[in-house]
Amino acid sequence: MKIKYYELKxxxxxxxxxxxxxxxxxxxxxxxxxxxxxxxxxxEQTSHGEYLVNIMGCNDxxxxxxxxxxxPEIIPELMLSGYPADRxxxxxxxxxxxxxxxxxxPDQTAAAGPWGVTFAGNLTPDNTGIGNWTEEQFKKAxxxxxxxxxxxTRMLLPPMPWxxxxxxxxxxxxxxxxxxxxxxxxxxxVPSPVSPDKM
Length: 199
Description:
By secondary structure, the protein is mostly helical. Helices cover 43% and strands 9% of the residues. The protein has helices at 2-55, 58-62, 95-98, 135-144, 170-182; strands spanning 65-68, 71-74, 103-104, 110-113, 116-119. α4 (135-144) crosses α5 (170-182). The radius of gyration is 28 Å and the shape is globular.
């Protein structure tokens, strides 16, 4: 009789352990789909940001290029890092600039016009780029044309077409910012603009 009572206790204990183990697994599985959905949402957001960066032409000016068989091609390891700091700054002497024309460097990372010479900024998540920017700063720069997204600073200079982006939604800005924060950081300190009198 003692053996049967002992066997009953062992059976009950085994059933309880199995039930507890089963409950733990169900709790874990109930959380896992939410984590997967959240990850999918972040990936969708970043993918949408990449799409917006591409159709808005950000690479046109902000990505250094080299000549390839199809013309200027983005240098992958320098994508969106702006005008390369180690590149010499040329002197613009073309008289057309004085009457309102603009000239671009061959890869379009710098431009000269009546405003002076401007250099495309570093949009990578390095601290020499937007690495220490807040999303609010990024939004202010993109939709209000404020340099570094800070109040009481100068406006962004041509050819940056920030006025085309004033109607971007918060969702779009968030997606673009998320994408830019996800790309490879490139250390590159872009030169300051050159005023017209120093060209």
